[in-house]
Amino acid sequence: QVQLIESGGGLVQAGGSLRLSCAASGRTFSNFAIGWFRQAPGKEREFVAAVSSSGRNTYYLVSVKGRFIISRDNAKNTVYLQMNSLDPDAPSVYYCAADYTPWSRDYVPSHSRAYDYWGQGTQVTVSS
């Protein structure tokens, strides 16, 4: 079992930046790949970015690549999502999720079905 708590969401102007944090507790954090997803009202949950449990590999949604950076600090049991040059869009809830991957530490899952644990989400609104 692992518990995930997101923070760092809020209201930001278009072109601005936010850094989201995903703090984990419970099982050994370094055995989990961590992903970020987002969901706007009336839309399906969408993959944004993920980092392998080793931290060596990352994967991004094409539209955010070059603007968003995912990173992890295993000493702090935390994963970050730095979001730059944010586009005005429908308000979205950003979720972090964990996939237990102790035997595939460079694997980066991108589908929501791969993830076993989810946080409650943090709201992000980008104004134009």
Strand content: over 45%
Structural class from helices and strands?
Answer: mainly beta
Give the end-to-end Cα distance, rounded to a whole number of Å.
40 Å
Order of helices and strands: EEEEEEEEEEE
Protein described:
The chain has about 130 residues and is mainly beta. Helix content is about 0%, strand content about 50%. The chain has no helices and eleven strands. It has strands at about 1-5, 10-15, 20-25, 30-40, 45-50, 60, 70-75, 80-85, 90-100, 115-120, 120-125. Strands 2, 4, 5, 6, 9, 10 and 11 form a seven-stranded mixed sheet that branches. It has a four-stranded antiparallel sheet with strand order 1-3-8-7, with no helix packed on it. It is globular. The mean pLDDT is about 95.
Question: Gist?
Answer:
By secondary structure, the chain is an all-beta fold. The chain contains no helices and 11 strands.
Q: What labels would you give this structure?
A:
single chain; 128 residues; mainly beta; 7-stranded mixed sheet; 4-stranded antiparallel sheet; 11 strands; globular
Blueprint of the fold:
Elements: E1 2-7, E2 10-13, E3 18-26, E4 32-39, E5 46-51, E6 58-60, E7 68-73, E8 78-83, E9 92-100, E10 117-118, E11 122-127
Parallel strand pairs: 2-11
Antiparallel strand pairs: 1-3, 3-8, 4-5, 4-9, 5-6, 7-8, 9-10, 9-11
